C-alpha cells in the first residue's frame, strides 16, 4: 500500500504536458457554481427527454408482431404498456417535446461539457476505487450524451447515417441514463452546495470588470492560474440562453400549423408539399418508395383477410359509410400537422371480414417497397376506436399519391409511420393476450 501511495503521489506530481496539467485551464469563470447552473438545467431537461423518449418507444407498440425494431431489447422493455388512442394529441405533444427540447438543450450541453472539461483530463486517472467509478460514469455520461444527441439530430434531419438508429438510440439511451443516475447521485450534494454558494441574481448584475474566479474547489474546476476575463458569467449565461432560444425558434414551427411553420428552418418538413388540400408534410414520396400511379390506379384492390375474405375497389370503399375526423399526424422526427380525414372506419372493415372490433388486431400491408415500415400491426384498441380510419380523402379532396392514394391508415395518437400509406391488405386476427 505505501508503494501504491508513493506511485500515485509521483504520478500526481508528474502529469503529462498540455491539458493534463491544471495550469493549462485558465478561464476565470469556470467553477462549481457555473457548472451547477448548467447541470440543474440538464437535470430537468434530460429527465423530460428520458420520459418522452420512453413514451415514444411505447407508442410503437413493440410487443405486437412485426412492430419491434429492437427485438433484442430483453428487460429494457419492462415498462411497455398498451398504447392508448386517447387523447389524440398525446404522441404529437410528447414527441414534439422530445425533439424540440433536445435541439434546444444542445448549447447547454456544450456549455456544460466546456465547464467540466478539466475533469476529463484529471491526472492520475484514478486515485481510488470511488474516483475510478466516478471517472467511468463521467466517460459513459459524456460519450452516451454526445451519441444520443448526435444520432437523434441526424435522424430528425432525415440523415439516416445509422441504419441501426432505433436499436442504437434505445441501447445508447439506457447506457446514458444509467451513467446519468450514477453521476447525479454522486454529484447532487456538491451541486446543491455550489448553487447556494453564489446568488444567481447577483451574478446577473456582475459585469466583466467585476468578474472574479470562484474560490478554489476540490474538484479542480477553478483555474489555479486564471487569466483575465474576456466574458462575464452573465455574458456566458446570456450567450448560451440566447443560442438555446434561437434553436427553439428555428424548430418549434415544425409542430405548429400556420405561419410559424415557415420559421422551422431546422426541420426537413418546414417546406410546402403538394397543392391545395394536400399541401402538408410528406415524409417519403411515392417515387422514393417505388409506388407508381398505375399500381394505385383503377386496378388497385384492397384485400380483407379474416374469417371471411374480400377484395374491394376504391368505389366500393367510397360507397360505404364515410366518417370525418380532425386528427394529427406526428412523426418521430418531431414534425406534426393536424388535417381533416375522411374514410371508412377500421371497425366496419373488421366486421366486413368477419372479425370483432375490440378483440381482433389488424396487420396492415402496403404497396411500399423497401424500408422497415411497409407493414404494421395495429392493436385491437386501435381497430375499435371510432376515429380509426382507412382514409380516402383529406380536407375534402382525394388523397394525393404522395399522401397515400388510394387509401391510407389514420389512427388517433399513433406514430406517423403507423399511419401506413398505399394500403393493399388488411389481415384481421385475434389479439395476442
Automatic annotation (TrEMBL):
InterPro entries: Mopterin_OxRdtase_euk (IPR008335), OxRdtase_Mopterin-bd_dom (IPR000572), OxRdtase_Mopterin-bd_sf (IPR036374). Residues 298-430 form the Oxidoreductase molybdopterin-binding domain. It comes from the Bacteria. Keywords: Membrane, Transmembrane, Transmembrane helix. Coiled coil: none annotated. The chain crosses the membrane at residues 31-60, 96-117, 138-162, 168-188. This is Molybdopterin-dependent oxidoreductase. It comes from Actinoallomurus vinaceus.
Amino acid at each position: 500500500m505505501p508503494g501504491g501511495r508513493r506511485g500515485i503521489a509521483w504520478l500526481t506530481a508528474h502529469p503529462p504536458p498540455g491539458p493534463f496539467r491544471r495550469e493549462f485551464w485558465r478561464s476565470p469563470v469556470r467553477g462549481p457554481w457555473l457548472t451547477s447552473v448548467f447541470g440543474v438545467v440538464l437535470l430537468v431537461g434530460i429527465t423530460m427527454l428520458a420520459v418522452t423518449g420512453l413514451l415514444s418507444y411505447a407508442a410503437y407498440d413493440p410487443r405486437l408482431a412485426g412492430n419491434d425494431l429492437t427485438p433484442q431489447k430483453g428487460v429494457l422493455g419492462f415498462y411497455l404498456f398498451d398504447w392508448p388512442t386517447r387523447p389524440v394529441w398525446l404522441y404529437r405533444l410528447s414527441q414534439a417535446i422530445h425533439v424540440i427540447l433536445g435541439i434546444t438543450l444542445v448549447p447547454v450541453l456544450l456549455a456544460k461539457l466546456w465547464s467540466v472539461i478539466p475533469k476529463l483530463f484529471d491526472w492520475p486517472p484514478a486515485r481510488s476505487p470511488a474516483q475510478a467509478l466516478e471517472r467511468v460514469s463521467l466517460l459513459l455520461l459524456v460519450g452516451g450524451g454526445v451519441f444520443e444527441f448526435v444520432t437523434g439530430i441526424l435522424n430528425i434531419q432525415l440523415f439516416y447515417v445509422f441504419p441501426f438508429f432505433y436499436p442504437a438510440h434505445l441501447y445508447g439511451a439506457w447506457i446514458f441514463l444509467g451513467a446519468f443516475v450514477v453521476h447525479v447521485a454522486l454529484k447532487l450534494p456538491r451541486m446543491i452546495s455550489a448553487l447556494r454558494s453564489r446568488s444567481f441574481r447577483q451574478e446577473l448584475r456582475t459585469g466583466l470588470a467585476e468578474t472574479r474566479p470562484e474560490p478554489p474547489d476540490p474538484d479542480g474546476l477553478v483555474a489555479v492560474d486564471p487569466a483575465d476575463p474576456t466574458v462575464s458569467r452573465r455574458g456566458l449565461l446570456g450567450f448560451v440562453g440566447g443560442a438555446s432560444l434561437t434553436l427553439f425558434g428555428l424548430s418549434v414551427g415544425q409542430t405548429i400549423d400556420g405561419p410559424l411553420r415557415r420559421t422551422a428552418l431546422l426541420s426537413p418538413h418546414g417546406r410546402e408539399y403538394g397543392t391545395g388540400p394536400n399541401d402538408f408534410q410528406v415524409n417519403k414520396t411515392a417515387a422514393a418508395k417505388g409506388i407508381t400511379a398505375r399500381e394505385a390506379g383503377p386496378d388497385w384492390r384492397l384485400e380483407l383477410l379474416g374469417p371471411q375474405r374480400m377484395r374491394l375497389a376504391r368505389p366500393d370503399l367510397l360507397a360505404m359509410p364515410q366518417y370525418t375526423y380532425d386528427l394529427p399526424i406526428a412523426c418521430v422526427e418531431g414534425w406534426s400537422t393536424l388535417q381533416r380525414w375522411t374514410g371508412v372506419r377500421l371497425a366496419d372493415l373488421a366486421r366486413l371480414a368477419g372479425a370483432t372490433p375490440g378483440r381482433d388486431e389488424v396487420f396492415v400491408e402496403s404497396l411500399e417497397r423497401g424500408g422497415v415500415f411497409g407493414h404494421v400491426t395495429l392493436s385491437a384498441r386501435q381497430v375499435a376506436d371510432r376515429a380509426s380510419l382507412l382514409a380516402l380523402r383529406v380536407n375534402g379532396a382525394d388523397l394525393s399519391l404522395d399522401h397515400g392514394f388510394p387509401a391510407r391508415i389514420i389512427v388517433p395518437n399513433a406514430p406517423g409511420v403507423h399511419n401506413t400509406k398505399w394500403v393493399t391488405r388488411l389481415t384481421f386476427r385475434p389479439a395476442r393476450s
